[in-house]
Every structure is written in structure tokens, then in C-alpha cells.
Known about the structure:
Layout: H1 3-13, E1 30-37, E2 40-47, E3 58-64, H2 71-78, H3 80-87, E4 90-94, H4 114-128, E5 131-141, H5 143-154, E6 161-165, E7 184-190, E8 201-202, E9 214-215, H6 218-229, E10 238-239, E11 250-255, E12 265-271, H7 286-289, H8 298-307
Parallel strand pairs: 3-4, 3-5, 5-6, 6-7, 7-12
Antiparallel strand pairs: 1-2, 2-4, 8-9, 10-11, 11-12
Amino acid sequence: MTSRFRAVFKRVALPLLFAAGLASPANAREHVEHIAFQGRDRTFTVHQPDTAPPPGGFPVILAFHGGGMQGAQMAKLTHLDRTADTHGFIAVYPDGIDKHWNDGRTTIRNPQDDVGFVKALLAKLAAQSAVDPRRIYATGISNGALFAERLGCDLASQISGIAPVAGTLPVDTTPKCHPARPVAVLQIDGTRDPIMPFEGGSVADFGGRGEGGNVLSVTETLAFWRAHNGCGAPVRPETLAMNARFDRTRIVRTRSQGCPRMAPVELLTVVNGGHTWPGGPQYAPRIFVGLASQQIDASAQIAEFFLNLPPA
């Protein structure tokens, strides 16, 4: 592969790779909803288990796609539908405007009110489904991970926990982040992410075609959430058992001391992992996005983290 081809790939093709080959098959339990919001037709897909809702209603996990994707591709990337059926929650896949979210970076090209859209989405969902308003959570990858961080900041009155994957707190968001209450946080980040740097700094902008901006490091992000939640220091990291023998990644879990029961702060470090969803496909060549770890199923880890929390 020539250096010229690599440059063109990074500049043009890479932002589209999330969408390529990730179309989700139709499912009878899924339906697309529409909301007229600020003069636009906004959409989201709902996947509800074929079981009776538990007392209090179903928990809800909102899954926000990365830049260049839409909700259907997020469903395929994460296989969160299958996890929802196993664990008994509603999975919701919102669609961004121009395939992006306004995550608070000043470099975002479409600074639409996506936090307001999520409020409207949750109101519509509650009006037509049996949902537990005390158990609403958000996850996402890349641009969707940064937006999940923002929801932890700006919508903590409704969002009880966040699980960003391959994305940390944007530098522009952090000074304005004043959550209304403690928020449960599970960060999942790869140490060799070539797009959202594990050590913080500049986000890849694909030759000016991406959203760019800067993010905090994983360490700084976890320190922010521990301080907000009133947690103590992190405990000794624990290396998890290998599940994929020939996988070159490893998973290290780091919990935090003294957090509120409903708002723990935890990190799953994907050693040698890239800008990917652990347990998901290697959606692009490793040279561009790094390794997709198969040592854990991120969707199952996220569901178990959220659903083991007491209602907020």
C-alpha cells in the first residue's frame, strides 16, 4: 500500500468504514420512531425483548454510533440486540445529523441540540413503552462515546450511567461539566487507539474531513468522574483471564474505591487495543484503526455493569 493511498484512505474512506458492511438485518421486534425536533425529522430505532417488562419497566440503554455511522450500523457493530434479549433491556439506536453528534467540541460542524433531542426521545419512549426512568443509560463509540460523556455532564438528571468506548471527555466539554448527581461510569479504551489517543490530545481529523478537537486522557477522564462522584483512589488493576488464545490484546480492569453504590467508576483498559468495539468485528484494516479485541464482549460487559447497579 503506497503512502499516497494511505493518505487518501485516511482523508476520505476511513470516516465511512463504520458504515461499510454493517447494515443491520430487519427484525420483527425492532421499529423506527420519528420525532419532529427543531424543524428536523429525527429518527431512532428501538429493539425491545419479546418478554413481559419487569416490575417498574425495562431498563434502557441508548447506543450512540460513531462518526460516519447511523443507528443500524451501531446495532450491527455491537450486537446489542442479542445482549438486550439475554439481559432484558430495551436497546435504542438514535441517528445523528449528517452521521455525527454534537459532543461539545467547538470543532463540531453541526452544533445541533442533540441533548434536547435525547430528552425528546426519552419522553416519546416513555409514552409508548414500559420503561424504568430510574434505569436509563448511555453508551457509544468514538464520536458517540464523546457524546455519551456529554450526556453524563448535561443530562445526569435522566441518564444514570455512561459507558464510553474508544472516547473520553472532550477538552471543550470538561470546564462546563457539572452533572446534577453522581453518574456511573464504565470507560473502555484501547492503549493503541490511533484516532482517540489514550494519553489524550488531538483527535484524528482525517486531513480536515473529520471533527478534530482535543480530548482528555483516559487517566484524566477517570479522575474527573471519581472526583465528581466522591470516589477515592483506584484500586490495584486486575488483569482478566484470556478468552481468545491468539488475540494479542489483554484486558485490565481498574475499579475505584469509595464510590456511591449507584455510581461506581470503572475502567477496562484494552492493552494493545485500537479504535474498535471489543467483541465486535475488525471493521477496518488494523493499520488504520488498530486491533479489535476478542478477549471480552463489550456489550455484555456494559449490560452487566449497568444492570447490576441499584436504581438511581
